Amino acid sequence: MVQSKTWVLARHFEGFPEDSNFELKLEQQPEPKDGEVLLEALFLSVDPYMRPFSRLRMKEGGVMIGTQVAKVIQSNNSAFPIGCHVVGRCGWRTHTVSDGTGLTRLLSDWPQEVPMSLALGAIGMPGLTALYGLEEVLGLQAGDTLLVNAAAGAVGSTVGQIAKIKGCRVVGSTGSDAKVAFLKELGFDEAFNYKTVSSLEEALKSASPDGYHCFFENVGGSFSSVAIPQMKEFGRIALCGGISTYNDTTPQTGPYPHLTMIFKQLKMEGFLVGRWEHKNQEALRRLMAWKREGKLQCREHVTEGFENMPAAFMGMLQGENIGKAIVKV
């Protein structure tokens, strides 16, 4: 039997997460039965969605939710032979026994020069989120002007690059001067540090005086209240996240956008990436092709050590990362 390290949710978050919300435990993994495999985690993802989903999907004492890239080290399942690599929603565990449900093998022709950790980033769920939000929700067209906030994160940075591939003008909002420089490296047409501008409204107007056709929303809260009036008539808004509200203990209130949305005839749609799961293989190959062609840059913020999962998670929520935040076991 293999001993696995796990991080459990000791108590639900109230406000911003603290070390006391997490507890490191050991558990014994049984020998795999027929149809089962034993996985060893190589890279684990920390993502903003874990904060609100923990309240909706988890009970105190449960293993923290999350996705990992893992290697099959024992197998009684011919679909997952020893030595192959998979992406699985195994939570914050170093080892997992699985019957294969929910496991996805990495692309069969995954290039040797491309880090497998990108299967948790631009060639994984965040990349798919960016692609589906742009194509399926926003219906992005060449010549559109796109606004994306949290633009230096895993999703936002991919959103901006895909939009440039598609011939759009891209404006990015982010939270540090180093992140602004990163967005410029990626080819964003305009980028600003929302923490240092004197007026968010004026920054948005200056970046695109004629307004925005599309808004890829990752932040919510007061940013949304300022951005929505900057939309063009018949503008489209994709609601991907609301990280500015995830740690609130008291819900934020107004101003409310209804009249602006009515008069400008705006379309706003929330979405979850799993809606288009049937398209994932083809979409992942498109993302990989852009990566190999040099059109898609993939920066990672890597934390070493499974014991540092909570610190990596809290750091990501505070915006410490540029690009995708991952933990290397």
Q: What can you see in these coordinates?
A:
The structure is a single chain. This protein has nine helices and 15 strands. With 329 residues, it is α/β, with parallel strands linked by helices. The strands form three sheets. Strands 3, 4, 5, 6, 7, 14 and 15 form a seven-stranded mixed sheet that branches. Strands 10-9-8-11-12-13 form a six-stranded parallel sheet, with helices on both faces. Strands 1-2 form a two-stranded antiparallel ribbon. α2 packs across α3 (154-165). The longest helix has 13 residues, at 125-137. Keywords: Acetylation, Cytoplasm, Fatty acid metabolism, Hydroxylation, Lipid metabolism, NADP, Oxidoreductase, Phosphoprotein, Prostaglandin metabolism. It comes from Oncorhynchus kisutch (Coho salmon).
Question: Rg, please?
Answer: 20 Å
Biggest β-sheet strands, sense, barrel: 7 strands, mixed
Q: Total helix count?
A: 9
Query: Which runs of at least 5 residues are low in confidence (pLDDT < 50)?
Result: none
Helix content: 25-40%
Q: Please state the average pLDDT score.
A: 97
Shape annotation: globular
Count of DSSP strands? 15
Briefly note the structural class of the backbone: alpha/beta
Distance between the termini: 20 Å
Strand content: 25-35%
Helix-strand pattern, N to C?
A: EEEHEEEEHEHEHEHEHEHEHEHE
Structural topology:
Blueprint: E1 2-9, E2 22-29, E3 37-45, H1 50-57, E4 68-75, E5 85-88, E6 95-98, E7 104-105, H2 125-137, E8 145-148, H3 154-165, E9 169-174, H4 177-186, E10 190-193, H5 200-207, E11 212-217, H6 221-227, E12 231-239, H7 258-264, E13 267-270, H8 280-292, E14 300-304, H9 309-317, E15 324-328
Parallel strand pairs: 8-9, 8-11, 9-10, 11-12, 12-13, 14-15
Antiparallel strand pairs: 1-2, 3-4, 3-6, 3-15, 4-5, 5-7
